[in-house]
């Protein structure tokens, strides 16, 4: 419900800022991601360790500038996001990540040719899940699964950021969706199953630094003719 309201607000603002002439172009950038997670297990809160993921994070935005100071964007992204978690009272460290295909929707306000603020929503489809387990800093296990039901089928997130001169972008993003699928059933090793994430919430958030790589030639759409 929250993300639906947010999308409605974006569309309302976009309609209010619409002009007769639109400048449309694409931008492509890489992204350096520093991610964490808010963890709540059986009512007990826990933190995570920063995870740095420089590869492979790419996003291509279709920008629609309604004026020199207002516009909006959509596009596609491929993103490597996860978190690192030390299990309390043990020497076990867990590392989780997903590769996801994302579709963002957002608005931009400011000097769109130089510096501006942006905010938006993104729908993501995790298509590859990886889990690593370390005990006493020694890797004990690793698994990588395509379209795993261990994580949510879709994730929803909100973002805010600032575009700086020369193509650099700072962004904060928070995932509204739980990282794991609470209905996922794992084997208990005795012929039965249990739901390891039924009583847990894992909400990932991250800070990122992006750098523009490519920008296509601008073109204009004029609906006055």
Protein described:
By secondary structure, the chain is mainly beta. It has one domain (2-217). The chain is 7% helix and 63% strand. It is built from one helix and 14 strands, in the order αββββββββββββββ. The protein has an eight-stranded antiparallel beta barrel with strand order 1-4-5-6-7-9-10-13. The chain has a two-stranded antiparallel ribbon with strand order 11-12. The longest helix has 15 residues, at 2-16.
Q: Would you kindly provide a brief summary of this structure?
A:
The protein has one helix at 2-16, and strands at residues 21-41, 44-46, 51-53, 58-65, 70-86, 92-110, 116-135, 138-146, 155-163, 168-175, 186-187, 193-194, 200-215, 219-222.
Lay out the secondary structure:
Elements: H1 2-16, E1 21-41, E2 44-46, E3 51-53, E4 58-65, E5 70-86, E6 92-110, E7 116-135, E8 138-146, E9 155-163, E10 168-175, E11 186-187, E12 193-194, E13 200-215, E14 219-222
Overview features:
225 residues, mainly beta, eight-stranded antiparallel beta barrel, two-stranded antiparallel sheet, 7% helix, elongated
């Amino acid at each position: 419900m929250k993300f639906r309201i947010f999308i409605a607000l974006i569309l309302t603002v976009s309609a209010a800022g619409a002009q007769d002439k639109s400048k449309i172009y694409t931008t492509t950038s890489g992204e350096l991601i520093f991610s964490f997670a808010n963890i709540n297990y059986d009512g007990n809160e826990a933190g995570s360790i920063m995870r740095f993921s420089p590869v492979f994070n790419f996003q291509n935005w279709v920008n629609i500038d309604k004026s020199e100071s207002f516009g909006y964007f959509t596009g596609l992204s491929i993103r490597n996001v996860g978190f690192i978690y030390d299990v309390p009272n043990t020497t076990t460290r867990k590392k989780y990540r997903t590769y996801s295909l994302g579709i963002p929707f957002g608005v931009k306000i400011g000097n769109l040719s130089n510096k501006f603020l942006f905010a938006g929503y993104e729908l993501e489809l995790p298509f590859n899940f990886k889990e690593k387990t370390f005990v006493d800093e020694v890797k004990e296990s690793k698994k990588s699964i395509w379209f795993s039901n261990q994580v949510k089928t879709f994730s929803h997130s909100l973002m805010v950021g600032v575009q700086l001169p020369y193509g650099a972008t700072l962004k904060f993003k928070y995932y509204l969706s739980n990282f794991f699928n609470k209905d996922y059933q794992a084997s208990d090793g005795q012929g039965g199953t249990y739901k390891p994430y039924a009583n847990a919430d894992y909400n990932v958030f991250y800070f990122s630094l992006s750098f523009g790589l490519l920008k296509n030639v601008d073109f204009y759409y004029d609906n006055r003719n």
